[in-house]
Amino acid sequence: MGKRGLVLEGGAMRGLFTAGVLDVLMENNISFDGVIGVSAGAAFGSNLVSGQIGRSLRYNLAYCRDKRYCSLRSLLRTGDLFGAEFCYRTLPLSLDLFDFDAYRESQTAFYAVATDADTGQALYLDCKGGDDLRVLDVIRASASMPLVSRPVLLDGRRLLDGGVSDSIPLSYFESIGFTKNLVVLTKPRGYKRKPASRLALTLLKYKGIRQAMKTRHLRYNETLEMIERREAAGEILVIRPASPLPIGRTSHSKAELQTVYELGRAEAERRLPELLRFFEA
Prior knowledge:
alpha/beta; 8 strands
Protein backbone atom coordinates (compact mmCIF):
# COMPACT_ATOMS: atom_id res chain seq x y z
CA MET A 1 0.00 0.00 0.00
CA GLY A 2 1.31 3.44 -0.94
CA LYS A 3 1.91 6.30 1.44
CA ARG A 4 -1.29 7.90 2.71
CA GLY A 5 -1.64 11.56 1.81
CA LEU A 6 -4.03 14.40 2.61
CA VAL A 7 -4.38 17.27 0.10
CA LEU A 8 -6.11 20.43 1.36
CA GLU A 9 -7.43 23.19 -0.88
CA GLY A 10 -7.52 26.78 0.43
CA GLY A 11 -10.38 29.24 0.32
CA ALA A 12 -9.85 31.58 3.30
CA MET A 13 -12.86 31.26 5.65
CA ARG A 14 -14.35 28.52 3.49
CA GLY A 15 -11.53 26.54 5.07
CA LEU A 16 -13.69 26.11 8.18
CA PHE A 17 -15.36 23.33 6.17
CA THR A 18 -11.93 21.67 6.01
CA ALA A 19 -11.43 22.25 9.73
CA GLY A 20 -14.62 20.29 10.43
CA VAL A 21 -13.42 17.44 8.22
CA LEU A 22 -10.02 17.37 9.93
CA ASP A 23 -11.47 17.21 13.42
CA VAL A 24 -13.57 14.17 12.45
CA LEU A 25 -10.48 12.50 10.97
CA MET A 26 -8.53 13.08 14.18
CA GLU A 27 -11.39 11.95 16.40
CA ASN A 28 -11.52 8.67 14.46
CA ASN A 29 -7.74 8.14 14.47
CA ILE A 30 -7.42 8.34 10.69
CA SER A 31 -3.79 9.22 10.18
CA PHE A 32 -1.64 10.18 7.21
CA ASP A 33 1.97 9.83 6.19
CA GLY A 34 1.89 13.34 4.78
CA VAL A 35 -0.26 16.46 4.51
CA ILE A 36 -0.01 19.22 1.92
CA GLY A 37 -2.07 22.39 2.22
CA VAL A 38 -2.64 25.63 0.38
CA SER A 39 -3.48 28.87 2.20
CA ALA A 40 -6.22 28.10 4.76
CA GLY A 41 -5.64 24.41 3.99
CA ALA A 42 -2.09 24.81 5.26
CA ALA A 43 -3.15 26.84 8.30
CA PHE A 44 -5.77 24.33 9.39
CA GLY A 45 -3.78 21.29 8.27
CA SER A 46 -1.00 22.19 10.68
CA ASN A 47 -3.41 21.48 13.54
CA LEU A 48 -3.92 17.93 12.28
CA VAL A 49 -0.16 17.39 12.30
CA SER A 50 0.04 18.69 15.89
CA GLY A 51 -3.09 16.73 16.85
CA GLN A 52 -5.03 19.75 18.16
CA ILE A 53 -8.68 18.85 17.71
CA GLY A 54 -10.94 21.90 17.73
CA ARG A 55 -8.20 24.52 17.63
CA SER A 56 -9.00 25.86 14.14
CA LEU A 57 -12.61 26.58 15.02
CA ARG A 58 -11.80 27.79 18.54
CA TYR A 59 -9.43 30.60 17.59
CA ASN A 60 -11.55 31.70 14.65
CA LEU A 61 -14.62 32.04 16.87
CA ALA A 62 -12.62 33.82 19.55
CA TYR A 63 -10.92 36.38 17.28
CA CYS A 64 -13.02 36.75 14.12
CA ARG A 65 -14.17 40.20 15.29
CA ASP A 66 -10.76 41.31 16.52
CA LYS A 67 -9.45 44.06 14.24
CA ARG A 68 -5.92 42.72 14.70
CA TYR A 69 -6.98 39.42 13.15
CA CYS A 70 -8.71 40.49 9.94
CA SER A 71 -9.87 44.01 9.14
CA LEU A 72 -9.64 46.94 6.76
CA ARG A 73 -7.80 48.77 9.53
CA SER A 74 -5.15 46.06 9.55
CA LEU A 75 -4.84 46.30 5.77
CA LEU A 76 -4.44 50.08 5.83
CA ARG A 77 -2.00 50.10 8.74
CA THR A 78 0.14 47.09 7.90
CA GLY A 79 -0.52 46.11 4.29
CA ASP A 80 -2.05 42.80 5.42
CA LEU A 81 -5.79 42.15 5.65
CA PHE A 82 -5.00 39.30 8.03
CA GLY A 83 -2.62 40.89 10.52
CA ALA A 84 0.72 39.14 10.23
CA GLU A 85 2.01 39.86 13.73
CA PHE A 86 -1.27 38.90 15.40
CA CYS A 87 -2.11 35.82 13.29
CA TYR A 88 1.36 34.32 13.03
CA ARG A 89 2.98 35.35 16.30
CA THR A 90 0.62 36.64 19.02
CA LEU A 91 -2.15 34.10 18.46
CA PRO A 92 -0.12 30.86 18.16
CA LEU A 93 2.56 31.84 20.67
CA SER A 94 0.44 33.51 23.37
CA LEU A 95 -3.34 33.30 22.95
CA ASP A 96 -4.17 29.83 21.58
CA LEU A 97 -0.92 27.95 21.69
CA PHE A 98 0.23 25.88 18.75
CA ASP A 99 1.71 22.66 20.12
CA PHE A 100 5.19 22.80 18.62
CA ASP A 101 6.36 19.79 20.64
CA ALA A 102 3.61 17.54 19.25
CA TYR A 103 4.15 18.99 15.78
CA ARG A 104 7.88 18.19 15.85
CA GLU A 105 7.31 14.71 17.26
CA SER A 106 4.63 13.82 14.70
CA GLN A 107 5.75 11.36 12.04
CA THR A 108 3.45 13.07 9.52
CA ALA A 109 5.27 15.05 6.83
CA PHE A 110 3.85 18.53 6.23
CA TYR A 111 4.12 20.72 3.15
CA ALA A 112 2.60 24.03 2.11
CA VAL A 113 2.39 25.63 -1.34
CA ALA A 114 3.43 29.22 -1.97
CA THR A 115 3.93 31.23 -5.14
CA ASP A 116 7.14 33.08 -6.02
CA ALA A 117 5.88 36.62 -6.61
CA ASP A 118 8.61 37.40 -9.13
CA THR A 119 8.46 34.24 -11.26
CA GLY A 120 4.95 32.92 -10.67
CA GLN A 121 6.45 29.51 -9.88
CA ALA A 122 4.75 27.17 -7.41
CA LEU A 123 6.99 26.31 -4.48
CA TYR A 124 6.32 23.21 -2.41
CA LEU A 125 7.83 23.96 0.98
CA ASP A 126 8.70 21.32 3.57
CA CYS A 127 7.36 22.71 6.84
CA LYS A 128 9.10 20.23 9.12
CA GLY A 129 12.60 21.66 8.71
CA GLY A 130 14.13 24.66 10.47
CA ASP A 131 13.16 26.28 13.74
CA ASP A 132 9.69 26.44 15.26
CA LEU A 133 8.78 29.77 13.70
CA ARG A 134 9.46 28.60 10.16
CA VAL A 135 6.20 26.67 9.94
CA LEU A 136 4.30 29.84 10.87
CA ASP A 137 6.16 31.85 8.22
CA VAL A 138 5.55 29.23 5.53
CA ILE A 139 1.83 29.12 6.33
CA ARG A 140 1.69 32.91 6.24
CA ALA A 141 3.35 32.89 2.80
CA SER A 142 0.93 30.26 1.52
CA ALA A 143 -2.04 32.31 2.78
CA SER A 144 -0.90 35.80 1.69
CA MET A 145 -3.54 36.76 -0.86
CA PRO A 146 -2.43 39.14 -3.63
CA LEU A 147 -3.67 42.74 -3.36
CA VAL A 148 -4.42 42.43 0.36
CA SER A 149 -1.10 41.04 1.65
CA ARG A 150 2.56 41.91 1.61
CA PRO A 151 4.88 39.24 0.19
CA VAL A 152 6.62 37.11 2.79
CA LEU A 153 10.41 37.12 2.49
CA LEU A 154 11.60 33.53 2.92
CA ASP A 155 14.74 31.77 1.68
CA GLY A 156 15.62 34.80 -0.45
CA ARG A 157 12.28 34.86 -2.28
CA ARG A 158 9.17 37.02 -2.13
CA LEU A 159 6.25 34.64 -1.59
CA LEU A 160 2.48 34.97 -1.89
CA ASP A 161 -0.66 32.80 -1.97
CA GLY A 162 0.00 29.25 -3.11
CA GLY A 163 -3.45 29.06 -4.66
CA VAL A 164 -2.33 31.35 -7.47
CA SER A 165 0.05 28.71 -8.85
CA ASP A 166 -1.30 25.36 -7.59
CA SER A 167 -4.61 25.43 -5.72
CA ILE A 168 -4.97 21.65 -5.35
CA PRO A 169 -1.48 20.09 -5.33
CA LEU A 170 -2.48 16.45 -5.82
CA SER A 171 -0.12 15.87 -8.74
CA TYR A 172 2.87 17.16 -6.81
CA PHE A 173 2.06 15.02 -3.80
CA GLU A 174 1.78 11.91 -5.93
CA SER A 175 5.10 12.77 -7.60
CA ILE A 176 6.90 12.54 -4.24
CA GLY A 177 5.38 9.19 -3.31
CA PHE A 178 1.98 9.85 -1.70
CA THR A 179 -0.25 7.58 -3.75
CA LYS A 180 -3.23 6.86 -1.46
CA ASN A 181 -4.79 10.30 -1.21
CA LEU A 182 -7.77 12.04 0.32
CA VAL A 183 -8.48 15.43 -1.26
CA VAL A 184 -10.56 18.00 0.65
CA LEU A 185 -12.09 20.74 -1.52
CA THR A 186 -13.97 23.86 -0.47
CA LYS A 187 -16.09 24.23 -3.61
CA PRO A 188 -18.96 21.94 -4.65
CA ARG A 189 -18.94 19.58 -7.62
CA GLY A 190 -19.45 21.44 -10.89
CA TYR A 191 -17.69 24.63 -9.82
CA LYS A 192 -15.57 26.32 -12.50
CA ARG A 193 -13.19 29.17 -11.81
CA LYS A 194 -13.60 32.27 -13.95
CA PRO A 195 -10.71 34.35 -15.34
CA ALA A 196 -9.33 37.09 -13.11
CA SER A 197 -10.73 40.53 -13.84
CA ARG A 198 -8.70 43.00 -15.87
CA LEU A 199 -8.80 45.43 -12.96
CA ALA A 200 -7.33 42.89 -10.55
CA LEU A 201 -4.57 42.02 -13.01
CA THR A 202 -3.77 45.71 -13.50
CA LEU A 203 -3.44 46.25 -9.75
CA LEU A 204 -1.04 43.37 -9.18
CA LYS A 205 2.45 44.68 -8.46
CA TYR A 206 4.62 41.65 -9.18
CA LYS A 207 5.09 40.32 -12.69
CA GLY A 208 5.17 36.64 -11.74
CA ILE A 209 1.93 36.84 -9.78
CA ARG A 210 0.29 38.79 -12.59
CA GLN A 211 1.26 36.20 -15.19
CA ALA A 212 0.18 33.30 -12.96
CA MET A 213 -3.16 34.97 -12.23
CA LYS A 214 -3.89 35.30 -15.96
CA THR A 215 -3.88 31.53 -16.37
CA ARG A 216 -4.94 30.47 -12.88
CA HIS A 217 -8.48 29.58 -13.95
CA LEU A 218 -7.18 27.28 -16.70
CA ARG A 219 -4.91 25.34 -14.34
CA TYR A 220 -7.56 25.16 -11.66
CA ASN A 221 -10.30 23.88 -13.94
CA GLU A 222 -7.97 21.33 -15.55
CA THR A 223 -7.01 20.08 -12.08
CA LEU A 224 -10.66 19.72 -11.11
CA GLU A 225 -11.37 17.70 -14.26
CA MET A 226 -8.43 15.43 -13.46
CA ILE A 227 -9.61 15.00 -9.88
CA GLU A 228 -13.13 14.08 -10.98
CA ARG A 229 -11.75 11.44 -13.40
CA ARG A 230 -9.50 9.97 -10.72
CA GLU A 231 -12.32 10.02 -8.18
CA ALA A 232 -14.68 8.20 -10.56
CA ALA A 233 -12.00 5.55 -11.12
CA GLY A 234 -11.65 5.00 -7.38
CA GLU A 235 -8.02 6.10 -7.37
CA ILE A 236 -8.53 8.94 -4.87
CA LEU A 237 -11.18 9.93 -2.36
CA VAL A 238 -12.64 13.45 -2.41
CA ILE A 239 -14.62 15.29 0.26
CA ARG A 240 -16.31 18.49 -0.90
CA PRO A 241 -19.33 20.56 0.19
CA ALA A 242 -22.62 19.52 -1.37
CA SER A 243 -23.45 23.12 -2.31
CA PRO A 244 -21.73 26.52 -2.21
CA LEU A 245 -20.69 27.31 1.34
CA PRO A 246 -22.67 30.12 2.99
CA ILE A 247 -19.64 32.28 3.72
CA GLY A 248 -17.30 34.67 1.93
CA ARG A 249 -13.51 34.70 1.88
CA THR A 250 -13.67 36.72 5.09
CA SER A 251 -16.31 36.70 7.81
CA HIS A 252 -16.79 38.29 11.19
CA SER A 253 -19.88 36.18 11.91
CA LYS A 254 -19.46 33.47 14.52
CA ALA A 255 -22.68 31.88 13.28
CA GLU A 256 -21.34 31.61 9.71
CA LEU A 257 -18.04 30.14 10.87
CA GLN A 258 -19.79 27.59 13.08
CA THR A 259 -22.21 26.65 10.31
CA VAL A 260 -19.46 26.02 7.76
CA TYR A 261 -17.46 24.01 10.30
CA GLU A 262 -20.50 21.86 11.08
CA LEU A 263 -21.06 21.26 7.35
CA GLY A 264 -17.52 19.89 7.13
CA ARG A 265 -18.05 17.68 10.16
CA ALA A 266 -21.35 16.36 8.81
CA GLU A 267 -19.87 15.48 5.43
CA ALA A 268 -16.87 13.73 6.97
CA GLU A 269 -19.10 11.76 9.35
CA ARG A 270 -21.38 10.78 6.47
CA ARG A 271 -18.39 9.53 4.50
CA LEU A 272 -16.63 7.91 7.45
CA PRO A 273 -17.35 4.26 6.50
CA GLU A 274 -16.08 4.98 2.99
CA LEU A 275 -12.98 6.68 4.37
CA LEU A 276 -12.18 3.71 6.57
CA ARG A 277 -12.63 1.26 3.69
CA PHE A 278 -10.49 3.37 1.36
CA PHE A 279 -7.54 3.51 3.71
CA GLU A 280 -7.81 -0.11 4.81
CA ALA A 281 -7.77 -1.39 1.22
